[in-house]
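Field log, afternoon session.

UNIT: design team B
ACTIVITY: writing a sequence onto a fixed backbone
BACKBONE:
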């Protein structure tokens, strides 16, 4: 028995020596670099572990002006280095050897966007958002953008089974416009003073106080969720205004958050990645046809619309099955109005969707088959059945 335990312990030690094992919470310190492994963003496995074989290398990048790699306490002259696994959490960069957590950036890496040729229909433009490392652009998600209405039609990204494991960080980055919005200053449009002014202009003096409170306001609703990405640099890249839509806070923190969390658990259980299109449709009105926009253009036409619907189209490329989760972007519509706005039979009432529980947040959400959600102008896909 003693010899068996000794052999088992020795084997585990030998295996540890052959690998570098990294912890999401302990070994990735701020400012966190971009990590590229075999041409892809570094990601944990389905158990949350990040392991590299002995001698395996990573590209470690601090992208952007004045960004440099920091090794220990020394700031190098390089914005990209190659880090080689030695054992446990020890890595080698050129002549430097030390703990992986001691490889950082002097400033958080800068993400960028690049236009994708071909667009995405109806005069819209398609942009990839990600990081450029050694002249190669690595895209984290793609955004279909309507430059006339200044709105994002949808964002496409991949959710991995490992996405359930992510770097938890209380620090919230600032959103950036990234050069896509030109003279439209998005940060000013989301200010509560502007929200109130727009509603008062639409409905009359002091009417905004009925809708805008300390707990209810139009938030910068993430389309591709921050927590869908495991590592911090990828999470930071979700803070682009092209990845947002004006969403009432109660819904953002309620049904929308429940969907994001439940969907990640479902994909983790599925064990393979799925593609998610998160989009917007329509313009929110106050029941009398008065549509809400956050600003106007030079001709006094409304732009940056507050969407009536937000949706997540979940598509499994392996089986070609899909489902559409929809939320009505209002906490003040009555049941008669929401019934009229429910565009399909709610398939989430079936037991196959027991993994999703909507929250009691005052908003209305439901689920559609891909065919029944045609009214939402979804991206065109070949669909063979219902994903659940």
């Amino acid at each position: 028995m003693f010899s068996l335990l000794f052999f088992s312990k020795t084997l585990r030690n030998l295996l540890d020596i052959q690998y570098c094992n990294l912890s999401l919470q302990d070994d990735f310190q701020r400012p966190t670099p971009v990590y590229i492994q075999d041409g892809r963003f570094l990601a944990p496995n389905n158990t949350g572990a990040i392991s590299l074989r002995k001698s395996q290398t990573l590209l470690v990048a601090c992208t952007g002006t004045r960004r440099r790699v920091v090794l220990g306490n020394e700031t190098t002259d390089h914005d990209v280095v190659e880090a080689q696994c030695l054992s446990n959490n020890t890595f080698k960069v050129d002549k430097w050897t030390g703990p992986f957590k001691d490889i950082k950036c002097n400033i958080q890496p800068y993400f960028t966007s690049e236009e994708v040729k071909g667009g995405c229909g109806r005069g819209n433009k398609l942009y990839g958002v990600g990081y450029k490392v050694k002249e190669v652009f690595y895209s984290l998600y793609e955004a279909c953008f309507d430059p006339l209405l200044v709105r994002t039609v949808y964002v496409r990204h991949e959710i991995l089974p490992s996405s359930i494991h992510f770097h938890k960080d209380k620090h919230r980055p600032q959103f950036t416009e990234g050069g896509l919005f030109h003279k439209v200053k998005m940060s000013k449009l989301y200010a509560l003073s502007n929200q109130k002014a727009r509603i008062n202009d639409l409905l009359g003096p002091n009417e905004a106080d009925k809708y805008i409170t300390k707990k209810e306001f139009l938030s910068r609703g993430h389309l591709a969720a921050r927590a869908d990405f495991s590592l911090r640099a990828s999470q930071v890249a979700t803070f682009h205004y092209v990845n947002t839509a004006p969403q009432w806070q109660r819904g953002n923190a309620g049904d929308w958050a429940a969907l994001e969390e439940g969907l990640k658990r479902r994909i983790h259980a599925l064990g393979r990645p799925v593609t998610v299109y998160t989009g917007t449709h329509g313009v929110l009105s106050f029941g009398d046809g008065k549509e809400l926009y956050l600003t106007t253009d030079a001709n006094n036409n409304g732009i940056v619309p507050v969407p009536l619907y937000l949706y997540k189209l979940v598509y499994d490329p392996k089986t070609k099955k899909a489902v559409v989760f929809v939320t009505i972007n209002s906490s003040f519509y009555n049941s008669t109005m929401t019934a009229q706005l429910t565009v399909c039979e709610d398939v989430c009432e079936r037991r196959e969707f027991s993994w999703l529980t909507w929250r009691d947040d005052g908003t209305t959400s439901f689920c559609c088959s891909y065919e029944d959600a045609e009214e939402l102008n979804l991206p065109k896909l070949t669909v063979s059945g219902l994903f659940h």
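LOG NOTE: The mean pLDDT is 94.
NEXT ACTIVITY: expression trials, pending approval
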